[in-house]
């Protein structure tokens, strides 16, 4: 791997057959195989079997049996213990999980290590939440209470069989942040990983078997989006679909879910604003804003890609950003010191380079980067455009690559600044950089986004709700909101 060795457990994992996990067993897929490649080298990692509608049917039936049977009969304390056991197994296999996301997705090792630690924390958090799932007691309705004594209370019950469709950009994390709350709530799961990055989900499947989850509680069906994904979203036996991916696919999921009116959660795209006020502390703002865009080489739903900089500091700020971007090390995720990895695929690279070309053609100034590196793998330099205007595609469209669009502003009126920041159909994330916390909080209250940071960007945490306003999605993941997304409320009234 570009001169870097994999751990023996990762090599052993790559050599095993990569099948589908259905009803507690690894089974063959009927939809052929797909080669998954290391995007930093273009070399094949493994042939992974694909399932289609037939396997989705089998997996949904297995999940239904488990939901009505073994999983429902298990005590909350036993479910808690199982999730804690899974977290320990993941901790013991942290190297394997991190290396799989590095070689399958291209992310640098420092991010993969961070995400594995976060994923373990996430499972522990939801394991601990199981015994705190609570209903409430309420005053009974008047027409019942008037006739004598009565009791009204609520129960929180699992939604049922959950379909979970996962993207490729942070493969293990997006799987865990769906799986952990669903299992904590008492749901059973059919998960479809992204066909681009199935490996860490398949390793997770083995850990779920090793932890001793009952058959059918978790089923993992790798497959193509238009085939297995579409079948899962439309399946009448699925009670809820949780999807993370592009806004365009999100629309298809909603249409597919209409048949049985299944519950839908959507975590979609973004074009998040970053506002740099004249009094920003540039020592932290320069690296912070650069990483807001370039973290995960921009393949990050939270990426802050529209940078609004006050004119009094614009030129200094852009120069410092350019110097920071120029100093970022691009390379294989296994290489020590790598800060930025490759784009996920040739097709995605072509899309990102097309955006760069269009921005130049539209009259934006290329202040840094802009080239694809002349080496194997799809490495694109961290790229900064200035002199951008609201109508340019580089300002309007989610690029999902290392491309930043800087715009200068002159006003200090917070409503006007917020209007610039909110000029997009998305609303996932955003950040404000200033030493004046009063200004910061007043501006945050005007920004239409689900997750806004002050003097940092994209500060997601296990217990902190995350999700989108506008076309960035429906619902929230993480924290209590993430658990609530897999729970129904049942109200009970008894005449006593
Ligand atoms: P994508 O929409 O192409 O694919 C996501 C998943 O959906 C994959 O598993 C894919 O196989 C599946 N899929 C594709 N077509 C489908 C269909 N017709 N029916 C059912 N499933 C289908 O997205 P991607 O390229 O994998 O991920 C990048 C996108 O994800 C970006 O837009 C990014 O902003 C978004 N994203 C959002 C968040 C968030 O939390 N809001 C997090 C990560 C990524």
UniProtKB/TrEMBL annotation:
Coiled-coil blocks: none
Pfam family of the protein (one): Aldedh
InterPro entries xrefs: Ald_DH/histidinol_DH, Ald_DH_C, Ald_DH_CS_CYS, Ald_DH_CS_GLU, Ald_DH_N, Aldehyde_DH_dom
Residues in Aldehyde dehydrogenase domain copies: 26-492
Domain of life: Bacteria
Keywords: Oxidoreductase
Positions annotated as active site in the UniProt record: 267
Family statement: Belongs to the aldehyde dehydrogenase family.
Record protein name field: Aldehyde dehydrogenase family protein
Naturally occurring in which organism (per UniProt): Sphingomonas rustica
Classification of source organism: Bacteria, Pseudomonadati, Pseudomonadota, Alphaproteobacteria, Sphingomonadales
């Amino acid at each position: 791997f570009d001169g870097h060795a994999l751990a023996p457990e990762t090599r052993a994992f790559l050599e095993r057959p990569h099948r589908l996990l259905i009803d507690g067993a690894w089974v063959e897929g009927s939809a052929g195989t797909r080669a998954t490649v290391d995007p930093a080298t273009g070399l094949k990692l493994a042939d992974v079997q694909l399932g289609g509608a037939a396997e989705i049917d089998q997996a949904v039936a297995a999940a239904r049996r488990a939901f009505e049977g073994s999983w429902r009969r298990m005590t909350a304390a036993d479910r808690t213990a199982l999730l804690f056991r899974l977290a320990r197994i993941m901790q013991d296999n942290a190297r394997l999980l991190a290396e799989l996301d590095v070689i399958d997705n291209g992310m640098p090792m420092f991010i993969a290590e961070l995400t594995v630690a976060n994923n373990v924390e996430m499972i522990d958090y939801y394991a601990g939440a199981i015994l705190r799932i609570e209903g409430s007691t309420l005053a009974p309705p008047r027409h019942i209470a008037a006739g004598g004594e009565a009791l009204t209370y609520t129960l929180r019950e699992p939604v049922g069989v959950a379909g979970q469709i996962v993207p490729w950009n942070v493969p293990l994390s997006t799987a865990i942040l769906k799986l952990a709350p669903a299992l904590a709530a008492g749901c059973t799961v059919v998960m479809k990983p992204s066909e681009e990055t199935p490996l860490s989900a398949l390793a997770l499947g083995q850990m779920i078997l090793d932890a001793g989850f009952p058959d059918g509680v978790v089923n993992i069906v790798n497959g193509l989006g238009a085939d297995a994904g579409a079948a899962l979203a439309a399946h009448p036996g699925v009670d809820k679909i949780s999807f993370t991916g592009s806004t365009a696919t999100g629309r298809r999921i909603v249409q597919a879910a209409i048949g049985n009116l299944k519950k839908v959660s959507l975590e979609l795209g973004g074009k998040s604003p970053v506002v740099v006020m004249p009094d920003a502390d540039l020592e932290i703002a320069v690296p912070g804003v650069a990483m807001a865009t370039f973290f995960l080489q921009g393949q990050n739903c939270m990426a802050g890609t529209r940078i609004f900089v006050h004119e009094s500091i614009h030129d200094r700020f852009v120069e410092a950003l350019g110097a920071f971007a120029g100093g970022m090390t691009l390379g294989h995720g296994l290489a020590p010191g790598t800060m930025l990895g490759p784009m996920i695929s040739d097709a995605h690279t072509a899309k990102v380079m097309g955006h760069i070309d269009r921005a130049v053609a539209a009259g934006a100034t290329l202040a840094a980067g802009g080239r694809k590196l002349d080496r194997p793998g799809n490495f694109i330099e961290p790229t900064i455009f200035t002199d951008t205007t609201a109508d340019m595609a580089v300002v309007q469209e989610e690029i999902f690559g290392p491309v930043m669009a800087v715009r200068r502003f002159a006003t200090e009126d917070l409503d006007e600044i917020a209007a610039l920041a909110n000029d997009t159909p998305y609303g996932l994330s955003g950040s404000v950089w200033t030493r004046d916390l009063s200004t910061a909080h007043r501006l945050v209250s005007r920004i239409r986004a689900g997750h806004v940071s002050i003097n940092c960007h994209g500060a997601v945490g296990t217990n902190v709700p995350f999700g989108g306003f506008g076309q960035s999605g429906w619902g929230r993941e993480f924290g209590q909101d993430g658990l609530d997304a897999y729970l129904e409320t049942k109200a009970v009234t008894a005449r006593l």
